[in-house]
Write a structure and sequence with these properties.
The chain contains 15 helices and 9 strands. It is of the alpha/beta class. Helix 9 (about 225-230) runs antiparallel to helix 11 (about 245-265) and helix 14 runs antiparallel to helix 15 (about 320-335). The longest helix is centred in the C-terminal third of the chain and has 23 residues, at about 245-265. It is globular. Strand 2, helix 2 (about 45-55) and strand 3 form a beta-alpha-beta unit.
């Protein structure tokens, strides 16, 4: 039985798939299996997988009709034989010492979950003097759970290493049909039962971000409704025994506030694909949404804000679209 199962959802990943697979084959630690889940790709992804399998015996290929990344990862979990589980996206890349570093930590620390850092560029250089911070159950509840509610800091599954026993014990699955924060919902399930988590400064994972992807995705996806859904998500289900309802609501409001400001910036971004009419229509939809009005009626959120964020907050409260446009244009020009 392999020590580690690496699960890769594959959907139309032709340009970068082989590079991703090669970064796994070249790991210094070798006791693993690769589970590539072809999620109904219409490009050459399946041909690349089959050709690569001829030289990589650890690669197992599964195919399904297009059901989305969550269903693909769930199929991988159902077939994983490893004692440990990690996830890689098909257009990303692993540092060659990643798996070996994970195994060293888990064998010395007995961790349920290991969290590593993201690479800003592909590098095979040796990383030295790496600190490890361990969190026992009390610290997990007091420090990690609140971050799940307030930010995206711990959301990704790709820079994490899980014991398969913990995943099975929590009966964790990725939510099918959810287009945003599916990683987070999986992590809520497994983190809620974790007794020890280790965070390492090791930079393990290169996430390939396509230029302009944020502005392109906002055209395809209804991010307002997605952020509303995150705000209305039942965090009490997993964290309610550790965090009070009042504190959960406070953290949710802080997150929602920042998300709305970011969304307004993206909609008014000069290089997005919306016409001017569409931009102003989208902003009008945001500031008139009932949840937005509810959250932004809480003046306590203004505490400790900088001048720019306070100005944006006030413009949303007063529904002044022109001011929102001018403030975001100023921010765009200032950051050039």
């Amino acid at each position: 039985m392999p020590k580690i199962s690496i699960i890769i959802p594959v959907f139309n990943s032709e340009p970068y798939l082989e590079e991703c697979l090669l970064s796994i084959s070249q790991q210094t630690y070798t006791d693993f299996e690769i589970l590539a889940i072809n999620d109904g790709s219409s490009d050459r992804s399946i041909e690349i997988l089959k050709e690569y399998q001829k030289k990589e015996a650890r690669l197992k290929i599964f195919s399904q009709e297009n059901k989305g990344v969550s269903a693909a990862r769930n199929l991988g979990l159902d077939n994983a034989k490893g004692e440990y589980i990690t996830f890689v996206d098909a257009d990303d890349w692993l540092h060659p010492a990643t798996l070996g570093h994970y195994i060293d930590i888990v064998e010395h620390e007995g961790s349920d979950i290991i969290i590593s850092q993201f690479l800003t560029q592909k590098s095979t250089e040796k990383q030295t003097e790496l600190s490890i911070e361990n969190s026992e159950r009390k610290d997990i509840e007091q420090k990690i759970f609140p971050k799940f509610i307030e930010s995206d800091y711990y959301n990704s599954v790709c820079n994490k290493f899980y014991t398969n026993d913990l995943i099975k014990k929590s009966r964790a699955q990725f939510p099918v049909g959810v287009r945003i924060a599916e990683d987070a919902q999986f992590n809520h399930q497994v983190f809620s039962l974790a007794q020890k988590i280790s965070e390492t400064q090791f930079q393990s994972y290169f996430y390939r971000e396509v230029e302009g992807s944020a502005t392109k995705n906002v055209v395809r996806n209804d991010y307002l409704q997605s952020n509303v859904a995150i705000y209305q998500y039942d965090y009490q289900k997993y964290f309610g025994n550790s965090i009070s309802d009042i504190e959960i609501l406070r953290l949710k409001k802080r997150r929602f506030f920042r998300s709305i400001i970011a969304l307004i910036y993206i909609y008014f971004h000069p290089k997005n694909q919306f016409s001017w009419g569409q931009r102003f229509s989208k902003i009008k939809e945001i500031i008139n949404h009932e949840v937005v009005k509810q959250v932004f009626s809480d003046d306590a959120l203004k505490q400790n804000l900088g001048r720019y964020d306070q100005a944006i907050f006030n413009a949303i409260q007063s529904k002044n679209i022109l001011k929102l446009y001018l403030y975001t244009l100023y921010s765009y020009i200032r950051n050039q």
